[in-house]
Amino acid sequence: MTSMRFKALEAVQSRPKERLNTDTYIASEHYCKYVFTLKTMRKYLAKDTFKAVQHAISTGEKIGRDIADDVSTAMKTWAMEHGATHYTHWFQPLTGSTAEKHDSFFELRDGEALEVFPGSALVQQEPDASSFPSGGIRSTFEARGYTAWDPSSPAFIIKLQSGLTLCIPTIFISYTGEALDYKAPLLKAIHLLEKVAVKVCRHFDGNVNKAAATLGIEQEYFLIDEALYQARPDLVLANRTLIGRGPAKGQQLEDHYFGTIPERVHSFMVQLEREAIELGIPLRTRHNEVAPSQFECAPQFEEVNTAVDHNQLLMDIMDKIASHHKLKVLLHEKPFAGVNGSGKHCNWSIGTDNGINLLSPGTTPEQNLLFLTFFINTIKAVHRFAPLLRASIASASNDHRLGANEAPPAIISIFIGSRLTHALNQLIEASSSEHPDANKKLEIPNIPEIAFDFTDRNRTSPFAFTGNKFEFRAVGSSANTASSMIALNTAVADQLLAFDRELCAELEKGVEKDQAAMQILKRYILESRDILFEGNNYSEEWAVEAAKRGLGNLPTSPESLDAFISQENIDLFKRNNILTERELIARHEIRLEMYSKQIQIESRILSEMVLSQVVPAAMEYLNDMLITYNQLMDCGLEDQATESKKFVEMISNHINEARKLVMLMIEERKVANKMLDTREVAMHYCHNVKPHFDTIRYHVDKLELYVDDRLWPLPKYRELLFVK
């Protein structure tokens, strides 16, 4: 194993130079090439059938089986023209990743070979529900579960070197009807919010007939060489480095952020963007992130359901494309200690069919009242359901990142900027004074006039208003964003329903509409202002202040996940028909199990690496030092021998401490594994097993500093992060 590190480094150095790509590529000409869009559907369907499908997609109504037969035939024809031989229902189980089972179009009927794809196969399939997380909803012997077609998310074709497959986005439910995925409750939450948003809008603008929640997801990730990745068992099995001394140079010079993109990485990005465009994922941005070997891509805004599907698909194809370049994508929130981790900033807003962004301040009093209604109700919703939003982003991997002076803390708060803070204060006080920077502009010779934006940005805030949208910054880079979007859309919809009820009650009393709305909104501000914070969320002072305000601070997942089964949140999801109590209990159970299993896996890997790789390498070096010590003594060089002895004792101490702590960690793991209650297991892994990680790492990283570099078996941070 010692030589594996050096073989990996040799492999990196021998990689051929990336060929300069000079092909002319116009993205708009390739956009949705492998997507069964409405435009494509129109070509393959009869006019009446197409209109029926279009109507069903826009209204959410069910598509009849006769229509489904026509659509499946058209979809098969289109897919086979591109070279597809198989189809699959593509769904998002509660593992957090995507799932698929491929079936061939080929079928024998009465001895005749045919390519078939009936409407029944499009509409519904039956994967094994017992093999996916169900939180007790399905027993091992109860295998039946269903996937059902989601017409609102277009089918697409995935290309692999071995062939092409038609993928049909679907929900995944149990035989008894409970949701076993992220998409089913997400669709319900989106539909609820959009219906309620229209209802509220019509109090102020009768021209609004449809509203759509939109989402833009910024995806951060690391790229390292494939050979170096394979030489690190912790990266292969846990997607993060459990040991490793920080390099002399990390991100302290701040020279990687927005720097020149390395050529090899650029080639990866170009291919990623092209495949994404062909799959209808509108990637527009690419750049270096803060940490070495860290990067980001971001698409244009889309409707929430499509944006979530596209982000899941993007993560799938990133890994595939990276392998073409002998690279490995790391989506873990904290793959390397001592440098920034990765997040997935979710930029969320609501738009109407007459072109209004409901979170964008307007130019007329009517438009601004509409803006304030949605703006303040969102603040109120986040304040009411902050624990739920915290639970929605909880995971073992995201715990490493939250509050680590690189990402928002576990305390949910909202940043809105000084101008909007001033505006809300004026609203409460019925004052009309202008903000001192209302018309502020920056003038520099030879540069066009620069107007200041409506708000600043606060990168430390978990939930920040950024001018025409809210940015949920606390979502982890590996997460399925559906989790946070289910929570956010449901919370905001419920709050808007409460506002609508109050407003209607006031209108029935004869109160003038604008006056009634303003009085309700003023009260909401007063009730929710504790959630607003403009300062540094990383500071210790904020943690103290947040506690005074009664804001929750749950830095670890097991405690925060309890929000899923609080009575308040059970009632929230039940009254809005998003998730049943049984489904929420199941999700709580699943997330706790996933947490425990992740820490268990990491603990096992750490044990193995220390005992079978680090300790043997350190012992070999220790033996060399003992030989040196004896030689010095034999030569009568007692002073030098004394110093050598101190060095030997120090190395020996780190070896013994690392080994002893590993054994203690193993014993704690055994205790956890004997527990029966899922929450108790997670709590024990969190508070009794996981704390050993850092203490073991301390001694191992010291050994990495001292042990002869030729003996160290694992690629070091300087190699992982800087060798391209």
What would CATH call the class of one domain? Alpha Beta
CATH homologous superfamily of one domain, by name?
Answer: Glutamine synthetase, N-terminal domain
Instruction: Summarize model confidence as the mean pLDDT.
Output: 91
Q: Unreliable runs, pLDDT <50, ≥5 residues?
A: 442-452
Distance between the termini: 22 Å
Please state the second-level CATH architecture of one domain: Roll
SSE class: alpha+beta
Count the E strands: 19
Helical content band: 40-55%
Overall radius of gyration? 28 Å
The total of helices stands at 25
Oligomer: single chain
Biggest sheet record: 9 strands, mixed
Broad shape? globular
Strand content: 5-15%
What is the CATH topology classification name of one domain?
A: Ubiquitin-like (UB roll)
What keywords describe this structure?
alpha+beta, Ubiquitin-like (UB roll), nine-stranded mixed beta sheet
